[in-house]
Amino acid sequence: MPTNHPLTADDRAAFDADGFLLRRGVFSAQEVAALNRIVTTDPVIAESVYGREDAGGGLTELALWRDLGDDMFSDVAQSRAISDPLEELLGGDISFFHAKLTLKRPHEGGAWDWHQDYGYWYRAGFPFPDMASVFIALDPSKRENGCLQVIRGSHRMGRIEHGVNADQVGADMRRVDAALDRLERIDVEMEPGDALFFHGNLLHASGRNTSENTRNVLLCCYSRSDNIPFAQNAQTRLTAFEPLEGDDIMRHADRPIAREKDFADGKPAVSV
Question: In the prediction, which pLDDT does 270 show?
Fold first, then answer.
């Protein structure tokens, strides 16, 4: 059964100190199976996926969208399982920013350089780092297939300068090396349905997929609703939403993704 109990004082303290909080079993096996079915069979997803190469030529596939609609991805993004804890962790009402799939195929899924999500979102015009991502494992996410790596407490370093490295937006490696010298690097191994909540300034990366298995992930990204970007456009739109109860997550499990969904066109975007 999903584990959607309220946050404890220890949970909130851990997020503030570490920059992340791992919650096990947030989504059920049935919900994960339905999401994976959409990922692997929906033609609109297949048409919307684009690739990003790491420095060694490994390819990770992405599909990114900026809207909420009548589909299961949107229902997950609006679920109380995400919104209730995240509002506590960010200290206020949240709005949806965007969501994406990152797909690492067996033996060829690429790595992601160390970066902060806010290192990219800052450039888009968000004035404050009151932003977070929720990494939802659709497959077992392990060291051998490129699980998320984080540097515990690195969000307290503030925003780090970022530059484009090949197809990716990476953090200044002098700062990353300083963080690695002083702070703990963690491989965040997860099971399907687990969710990692992490701060927009947390340094994170992922390795290549050297295994026989896929590493599929759904990432949902949010901002505090009062963190209005000064450069407002289609790429920085925030969408308010009413949280959905857990029983509603499966309501669109068999509905195809609408061709009108607001997918990105393949421009660089941070991911994991």
Answer: 59
Averaged pLDDT for residues 193-207: 96
pLDDT surpasses 90 at 227: yes
Count, residues in the chain: 272
Tens of pLDDT, residues 4-59: 689 999 999 999 999 999 999 999 999 999 999 999 999 999 999 999 877 677 88
Yes or no: say if 105 and 92 are a contact pair by the CB < 8 Å rule. Answer: no
Instruction: Give the tens place of pLDDT for each residue, 228-239.
Output: 999 888 889 999
Residues 6+ apart with CB under 8 A from 183: 151, 152, 153, 154
Plot region of 158 (φ>0 → left; ψ -120 to 50 → alpha; else → beta): left
Residues facing residue 185 across a β-bridge: 151
